[in-house]
Specification:
The chain has 261 residues and is of the alpha+beta class. The strands form two sheets. The chain has a seven-stranded mixed β-sheet with strand order 1-2-3-7-6-5-4, with helices on both faces. It has a four-stranded antiparallel β-sheet with strand order 8-9-10-11, with no helix packed on it. Helix 3 packs across helix 5. The longest helix is centred in the C-terminal third of the chain and has 33 residues. The chain is globular.
């Protein structure tokens, strides 16, 4: 199944984007992220998108392999930014919230699972991976990689949108091209919201869609409750012991929160 780039561009033109976003489409490439960086290094000016029908060497967070079979959405969006380095986690929060909130406007009940996943009823719908380049003390450019299950095979802990639509009897997004356009617009809307409201405003709406709020976790033999996410993108957990409670902040990669089966 190949993507119709003209249809994608038509879908983009119907959405609330402030500027035209060039799209580079491919059938199979190793990685949309890698291709986006190659285009940036060759002089292509951001913003632009790279999208592929299939990736042969896709990667998720922590270097994990991202299965990228035919039928899924695999795209990367190259952006020029001017954020200080310590604000890099804000890009993940803004992207995840932007996509989840936009898909919910299409009656798809997506929530955000820490640190970078999109879920429906606890099953993984998609993931986000962000790479940045730094100039001085600022992030000068970012490539935001997104994978969303559309009509591809998924593991037991995953879900694709076609299966979801079959279960509800209603299809609010009708093509992979439309999904791609909606996702690109969602990344921009999440980023713009963050720039206008700063991290405090973003966290307020992010937590409304936070799937792990109240989840019980075990840390070094102690039971804790997930209470939120910090402005550094860390997981906030309240630990309780006899007569005392304490809140700890866990960086990405220190704990896995699991999925429903």
């Amino acid at each position: 199944m190949s993507l119709d780039i003209q249809q994608l561009e038509n879908e983009l033109s119907s959405l609330d984007l402030k500027t035209r976003i060039p799209v580079h489409g491919f059938n199979t490439i190793p990685s949309t992220d890698r291709t986006a960086w190659e285009l940036l290094e060759s002089g292509e000016n951001p913003p632009f998108a790279v999208i592929a029908s299939q990736q042969s060497a896709g990667r998720g967070q922590q270097g994990r392999q991202w299965l990228s079979e035919i039928g899924g959405l695999y795209l990367s969006l190259a952006l020029e930014t001017d954020l200080t380095v310590e604000k890099a986690p804000h890009l993940v929060l803004a992207t995840a919230w932007g996509i989840a909130s936009r898909l919910r406007s299409y009656r798809i009940p997506v929530r955000v699972k820490w640190p970078n996943d999109l879920v429906i009823d606890g099953k993984k719908l998609g993931g986000i991976k962000i790479e940045t380049r730094v100039r001085g003390e600022n992030i000068s450019r970012a490539v935001i990689g997104v994978g969303i299950n559309w009509r591809n095979r998924v593991p037991e802990t995953g879900i694709d949108l076609q299966t979801f639509f079959t279960g509800t009897g209603e299809s609010s997004i009708h093509s992979l091209e439309q999904l791609a356009a909606v996702t690109i617009a969602a990344i921009f809307s999440g980023y713009d919201y963050y720039l206008s409201k700063d991290i405090e405003g973003l966290l307020a709406v992010y937590l409304e869609l936070f799937a792990n709020l109240g989840q019980r976790v075990s840390i070094a033999g102690n039971t804790g409750i997930v209470t939120g996410v910090s402005d550094r993108g860390e997981l906030k957990v309240r630990l309780s012991s006899a007569g005392a409670t304490t809140e700890i902040h866990l960086p990405t990669g220190t704990i896995s929160l699991g999925y429903n089966r």
